[in-house]
Amino acid sequence: MKTSLHFEAPTDLSVGTVRITGHGQTIADWVATPDNRTFQRDDLRPGVYSVEIGPAGVAPQSVVFEVREGQANNVVLPSFSALSSTGSNTSFFDMDGQRAVSESPFSIKVDAHLNLGLTQPDRRVSHDGEKISGERARQIDIPTARRRVSIGLSEEALGPETFATFDGQSKMELSSGRLELEIPTDSRRDHWAGHRVRLSAAIEKVRVERCLLPLYRGGTRITVAAPSFSAADLELSITPVDTKLRAFVRALDAGTSIEAAAVRDDVIGRRDAKILLVYDADPWAALLFGLLTIRFPDVFGPADPVWTDHLVERAGWAFDAHVIRASQALSAAAASSLEARNNAVSETVGFLAKAQVAGSPYYRYTNQLFGEMAAGVASYLKVNNPRIDKAVVRRFERLHSRWHRELPLQRGSGSTFTWLARDLAALRERNVLVPHRHPSGRLQPRHTRIVFEGEISAGQIAIIGRSTTSEQTSSSGGAVLSHVVERSEDAPEFGWAQMPALRRPPGPQDDPNKGRFGGEARRGGFRLSATFEPTKSKSWVAVILTIEADRSMKIALGDFAWFVLHPTFSPSALKVSFRGSRARLRIQSKGGFTVGVWVPRYGIELETDLAQIDGAPRIIKLL
Q1: What pLDDT, on a 0 to 100 scale, did the predictor assign at position 27?
Q2: Are the beta carbons of 606 and 522 closer than 8 angstroms?
Q3: What is the pLDDT of residues 240-280, one digit of tens each?
Q4: SS3 of residue 398 by DSSP
Q5: pLDDT, tens digit (0-9, with 9 covering 90-100), for 550-594
Q6: What is the C-alpha to C-alpha distance for residues 275 and 178, in angstroms, rounded to an integer?
Q7: Which of 22, 194, 253, 429 is the most buried (most CB within 10 A)?
């Protein structure tokens, strides 16, 4: 029988490079898209191979696998998010179990590591356990600062800049110092109506950062990461769940002309751009396509002026639509007569002014275009001011002055344009716009739905709950968590709605998980434990919840557990990915309660009462 390989890249790969190497040479190297993820080859030399997967703008992940002689080898990788959940950039594929794992299921010699371009781990340690590398030990100082953080969602209510509590649904997962908040498609919303949703993130003594949130068809994913080697801070990433639409975002934000061409050929294909403006299309796809034609004119060609006018007509509520139209007007007149250029500048000023009236940009690249065009118009007016209508000049001076005044508040996070909350005292006393640098880290829930409250440090995110004796405890005992929904791609048996505990009556009103998850902390090869650490506040204690699997369980990448907390936590239920044989969640609590856990792949339910654990602090036992 031939030694063959069938390879499939992760299903959530939008656009990025895939490179397969082995025996010191590259056997495959291409730009993958959702419809171009597979590789097939016969008569392959047996041995150890590796594949590096590098989505545009994202740190690559490598997977090592073995090609066995005389077999039809089949390597189907899990999602890229599962690969990155390990906290390492290298994973392994178990051919027997047909799944990716964190530890090598086969023997790899040192020279195999070198041939594959992988780094052989340095396992030398000093007498006190500190790792040493090279000729001498080097100590790495990891920042110990901890800061309060809140994340909230609000939506436009009666008019522009008037926001109320977000009324949609969301789901949150935790993986390796990273939170993923997902907002699914809401069939009740008219995506072309321009109803705006705003995300706010408050970080104690750092900033309050906001952005307008695109509600993509297929869902929107918000990733919140705590960097491992920096002071307590957050990194935000906002992308579509749909991989094809995400390819648009990746190409715009971090792609080269090669990735842009792959999006053009494999994602857009031969479809007419007009289809992006029909009623059931996604307005964000149309806006992204318009921006791609500006960033990659050699790949996409200029957008049709009729199409651009239609975009402004349908999505005039978006700052980005007017900037796209302004860019087209300015480009069209570049090689025209002086009179045509003057008219184009006047038209451009009008579109830029309309953009400012519409509010803030959705995309960082749009904001960059605005700045570049404003600078170009300002230079043009210095030379041609007498030939331009005075009203147009005054209009431009106003919008340009506003642009410069707001520069200290402008920020960007990935592809998304974000801005900082202003310091009201500085505005009142000195009439200047500067960021508010000393916030409490708490958002006001009056007009914002708080979807996460916690504490961050280097590489760690903890959830903070209110007192479990609070009157805010749900009267339903936590039987239904309205903020938890399912991803469409989740297998039914792994989804929240299938959790067996939900079909059982809740426990006592002040401890609804009590007895609801089987009453045992150890079962079926899994053990749930909790340890406690002091915090900077005497009123709170840190609780580290850990699920550990026996070696016999062979946990795969992408396996996860549901942690169900007291209803006073936000969120009160989280999917937590396993990292090796453990899934770990850090929370802060005032008072004891029962934690429930469900490991769906293995059908295991566990629970533990924090107040009954030996060594639990008084604040847990007595409140």
Answers
A1: 95
A2: yes
A3: 999 999 999 999 999 999 999 999 999 998 777 888 887 67
A4: helix
A5: 988 888 988 999 999 998 887 888 888 898 899 999 999 988 999
A6: 36
A7: 22
CA within 13 Å, CB half, 550: 8
Asked if pLDDT for residue 419 goes beyond 90, the answer is: yes
**Token pair belonging to 398:** 């106003």
C-alpha to C-alpha distance for 115 and 315, rounded to whole angstroms: 52
Which helix H or strand E contains 413, and what residues bound it? strand 410-413
Q: Is the separation of the CB atoms in 130 and 124 below 8 Å?
A: no
- 10 Å CB burial of residue 59 (0-12, 13-18, 19+) is exposed
Q: What is the pTM of this model?
A: 0.86
Closest CA to 586 of 563, 558, 611, 557: 563
In the numeric block, the tokens 């959702």 are attached to 34
Which residues in 56-146 belong to E strands, given as ranges?
Answer: 61-67, 72-76, 90-94, 99-101
- DSSP-derived pairing of the beta strands 522-523 and 460-464: unpaired
pLDDT the model gives residue 491: 47
- Of 227-241, 246-260, 467-481, 593-607, which gets the smallest average pLDDT? 467-481
Q: How many CB atoms lie under 10 A from the CB of residue 254?
A: 16
Read off the tokens for 241.
């769940």
Cα distance between residue 513 and residue 508, in whole Å:
8
Helix (H) / strand (E) containing 594? strand 594-599
Residues 65, 74 contacting (CB under 8 angstroms):
no
Closest CA to 518 of 586, 605, 436: 605
* CB-neighbour burial class of residue 84 (10 A; exposed 0-12, middle 13-18, buried 19+): buried
User: 240 and 220 in contact (C-beta within 8 Å)?
Assistant: yes
Cβ distance 444 to 455 under 8 Å?
A: no
Give phi and psi for 607, each to the nearest 5.
-155, 155
Quick check: 437 and 206 in contact, CB under 8 A?
yes
Contacts of 244 (CB under 8 A, 6+ apart): 14, 33, 34, 267
Q: Are strands 147-156 and 541-549 parallel, antiparallel or unpaired?
A: unpaired
